[in-house]
Amino acid sequence: MENVISVKGLVKSFGRTRALDGLDLEVRRGEVHGFLGPNGAGKSTAIRVLLGLLKADSGTATLFGGDPWRDAVSLHRRLAYVPGDVTLWPNLTGGEVVDLLGRLRGGLDTKRRDELIERFELDPRKKGRTYSKGNRQKVALVAALASDAELLVLDEPTSGLDPLMESVFQSCVNEESSAGRTVLLSSHILAEAEALCDRVSIIRAGRTVESGTLAELRHLTRTSIHAELAGAPNGIASLAGVHDVVVDGDRVRFQVDNAELDTVLRALTTIGVRGLTSQPPTLEELFLRHYQKEEAAAA
Amino acid sequence: MTGTWHLFRLALRRDRVVLPLWTILLGLFPGLVASSFASLYPDPAELAKFAASMSNPSLTAVYGPVWSPTLGGLTAWRSSIVLLIVCLLAAFTVIRHTRAEEEQGRRELLGATVVGRAAGLASALLVLLVAAVVVGGLTAVGTAAAGADGGGSLALGLQYFLACLLFGAIAAVLAQVAQSARTARWIAGAVLIGSFLLRMLGDAGGDLDSPLSWISPIGFLQRIRPFADERWWLAAVVLVVVAVLAAVAYRLNVRRDLDAGLIAPRPGPARAPRALLSPLGLAWRLQRSTLFGWLVGYAVLGVFLGSATDAAVDAVRDSPELADAIARIGTGTSIADMVIATGMAIIGIGAAGQGVQAALRARGEESALRAEPLLAAAVGRLRWASSHLLFAFLGPALGLLVAGVFLGVGYGSASGEGAGAIGRVVGAAAVQVPAVWFTVAIVVLLFGLVPRLTSLGWAVLAFFLLLGQLGAILQLSQWALDLSPFTHLPALPGGDLTVTPLVWLVAIAAALTAAGLAGFRRRDVASGG
């Protein structure tokens, strides 16, 4: 499948700080790609390189097959961007900013604009300086979503939005995705990525540490099992790949490496299963495990 | 006012470079001027003769009266341009530590800690007091050390001290009234220009106690008359005014909400007009009120200067001694041309200020991260930058044209010279344009190559101003004076029009601008943090 974004070994330093340290990223046409990492991991820097605002020190980045630095203007006609830190002109109204940004990237669907303003409950008549952070975010979101861009680049787009608006945002992204648009969604909110993304890349300290579909990522990790057994869960704890075992009478709770799932289930059925719930790992757990592992390695 | 002391120390730390720089440099200036005069005219009689030749209406209009034909008196008179800069910087300092902090949201962060509502204002006024003491103290010590009369030096230092406090206190009120720091700075600048104009018009007529000069804050401060029967009691009046202004600022501050001004914002249009929908349309929207402000300023200044010129001509006609003194300077130009040329030189610097301000707007937009969404849309870097630079280059040119026309009309109608005056005066205004462009081009170069230092553009402008106004008095050598583009302009009206330096200035300005824009295309766009 064709890649909309393709980044290899990207390096960008600011003075002595290495913001990007060999980043890799591939975003395929039509997918919603989660770009995950904690604050300061280099997500915004990578996005700014992709937008041609920053010049990479080394590595390659292509956007729609073009050079984001050299072909900035023509590439930008095909994408819409929501910055992580939205600042508006103090004396322009929200509606004016939506129209301006829409026009400058090449056009805006006015019907969709009005519909989005309504859905996000945005007052377009207020001046930029009087908007709260959440409302500034909405202005940028409406401007981006009302465009007919092929690619949406969203840098932590829901920071400052309340849960209601967050769900409006999620349904909007789903609509964009079913309309065939590609979305790069940077976030540190894992529930959001989990709800929206087809594939994710996890970055840390300017380097990609994991990339793939959620299913693939989960495969590499553990499932949580709650089981109610016919007898005492003897021997479970000593099986390979079983972790964090908590025994409570005939009930047992543990995590198991997905590769060992088969063996462990067989052991459980030997004892006799009365009830069983299994839970795939949440992104949260993936994330924490990854970071704990890295920290442990660093220590 | 809990927490004032902490905020005061924070403010001093934040201002640890700029504050010492301007207070010490400007505080040292009167002393430097005094020692220059002392070495130029060691003999008091020569000094008095020089003072007499300087007491002509054109120079009185610009600098104010020479109160005493002594070393100190001439120093006080010639440094009056420095006094204006002190007033402006005092006002900017207060706004920087009050409204600007609040606008950036930093006041909110601190306001949630154990800090009283008025602590921000109080700490800014303490910073102002420190600045005033440094400027005033250095002025008094410097002039006295150069050999001027001790009591007079003290009065001159007091004048600088009070100027700081007065304009700082005015700015403190403006910072409460205006909702943005830019607006507050703008009004403070207008107040200063207004009081300069009032004093100019008052003093140009030769009446040293004209009511116009007395109601002008600058004129009032100058009427403390350092070195000539000092009127110490005027200092008490100024201190009362300062106290009242501080109290008003305090009242406004404790009553209003965070981020609020006196004027409530109204809702605007929900749709953008077509004219807004381009980088240039946006730049026009962002720059137009500033541009209109400048144009009104030029028109007013032109009319005032036109009338002042006429008043000066009348004063010379009525006084044979003055006519004699002017003949002795012997430049061969008429008194009217002298006044207009002196005024144009100052308007030229003002126009350069307008250009620097408009060019800095590009950098301001960039560092506020407001360039980012535009550059992430289908807008090239050159297109975005030139939308603002257009205002930096054409705005001052338009302004000088307006100043020239209004000055020409004002003088032409008052003197009866009529339309002929307009052409001459507009020509004098037009020759300022290359020097203005040169100054703006330096800002563009900084913007493109060392963006962090773009605001040094103001320092460059101040440097040119001081070279032009005080360079000759400080006996700087010609190569130093030649650093300022304004040195190379022909003295019009009255002098010869030499085109070569103008062509060179424009060519260098074009080269610097091209280099700056090329640099901007190659560099990273500011990404905050």
UniProtKB/TrEMBL annotation, chain A:
CDD domains: ABC_DR_subfamily_A. Keywords: Antibiotic resistance, ATP-binding, Nucleotide-binding, Transport. Residues 5-230 form the ABC transporter domain. One of its GO terms (molecular function) is ATP binding. It is a peripheral membrane protein. It comes from the Bacteria. InterPro entries: AAA+_ATPase, ABC_transporter-like_ATP-bd, ABC_transporter-like_CS, ABC_transporter_ATP-binding, DrrA1/2-like_C, P-loop_NTPase. It is found in: Cell membrane. Gene3D superfamilies: P-loop containing nucleotide triphosphate hydrolases. Belongs to the ABC transporter superfamily. PANTHER family: ABC TRANSPORTER ATP-BINDING PROTEIN, ABC TRANSPORTER ATP-BINDING PROTEIN NATA. This is ABC transporter ATP-binding protein. It comes from Asanoa iriomotensis.
Automatic annotation (TrEMBL), chain B:
Coiled coil: none annotated. Keywords: Membrane, Transmembrane, Transmembrane helix. The chain crosses the membrane at residues 21-41, 76-95, 115-138, 158-177, 184-202, 232-250, 291-309, 329-353, 389-413, 425-449, 456-481, 501-520. This is Exporter of polyketide antibiotics. It comes from Asanoa iriomotensis.
